[in-house]
Design goal:
By secondary structure, the chain is an alpha/beta fold. The protein contains 13 helices and 8 strands. Strands 1-2-3-4-5-6-7-8 form an 8-stranded parallel sheet. About 45% of the residues are buried.
């Protein structure tokens, strides 16, 4: 069965450096080494798992002052390994204003990226902040999609004050507003949305332009009602993502299979919905 992984970070030294003061805390949060891999090692892990990856750029420059993993970086890695990396999400910092607008145009028109990933908690903004609507209006006009984190994050978890990050910025109500205000914009919610799983479910069901990928969680820990909904009323909305390298592929794929979903449902989650919605 084809497996499209919508949420893969590069895992290289550049990506580690982008996380600045959060590296040690993330290693503790995930209970595994949070160290850089070579590009060849990353591609080998994708290959061994049998996944076709979409890389995710990361830009936290205005909040933690680290060098970003740029749109050009993920584009170049994609083009070096087109059989295993099939697309990439760019990163934009809304607070960069006109710079972000110019980056969006280049990423779509010149680099051909599928869209943009946003990390509201770490970028210190909510997706329904009207100050940044011109950026989302531009993205929609470019025909690009967005992937926006919902729910809490391991970044800052356990650190004093969360290093200034606020989990409320990733509440699904912000997606509800954004989807209502930009009905032609394809929106992928990233992660299960805990502790607001039921509210995230409601947004996915209500808004026809909103979809949902389940990266960053071991499937056996998905809430019970979510496990039921994914095989029934959400089956045309759910897509596969790993949040690589957060959890080992062997564990993630094994636990997805242990959910016992019919093959027809798994086909939609692992590749069919992404093919239909994003043209992959």
């Amino acid at each position: 069965m084809r497996i499209i992984d919508l949420h893969c970070y590069p895992g290289t030294q550049e990506w580690i450096l982008c996380q600045g003061p959060y590296v040690d805390a993330l290693a503790k949060y995930w209970n595994r080494g949070w160290t850089a891999k070579t590009e060849d090692e990353v591609i080998r892990e994708f290959t061994d798992a049998g996944v076709e990856a979409l890389l995710v750029a990361l830009d936290l420059e205005t909040t933690i002052k680290t060098p970003p993993v740029t749109n050009e970086y993920v584009h170049a890695m994609w083009k070096r390994h087109p059989k295993r990396v099939i697309q990439a999400w760019g990163a934009l910092e809304p607070a960069k204003g006109e710079v972000a607008m110019a980056q969006a145009k280049k990423a779509v028109r010149e680099l051909g990226l599928i869209g943009f990933h946003f990390h509201p908690i770490m970028q210190h903004f909510a997706a329904n902040d009207r100050r940044y609507y011109p950026l989302f209006e531009l993205i929609a006009s470019l025909g690009a999609a967005v992937m926006i984190d919902v729910g809490t994050t391991g970044m800052g978890a356990g650190m004093p004050g969360g290093m200034g990050a606020r989990i409320r910025h990733a509440h699904p109500s912000a997606i509800d507003d954004l989807a209502a205000d930009f009905p032609k914009l394809k929106i992928i919610m990233a992660h299960p949305g805990w502790p607001w799983v039921d509210e995230t479910t409601a947004v996915a069901l209500h808004k026809g332009n909103v979809y949902w990928e389940m990266s960053g969680w071991a499937p056996k820990y998905f809430p019970a009602q979510l496990k039921v909904d994914m095989r029934t009323r959400l089956q045309d909305k759910i897509m596969f993502g790993s949040d690589y390298p957060s959890l080992p592929y062997a564990r993630i794929l094994k636990e997805w299979q242990e959910l016992g979903y019919p093959d027809a449902v798994m086909e939609k989650i692992f590749h069919g919905n992404a093919e239909r919605v994003l043209g992959l």
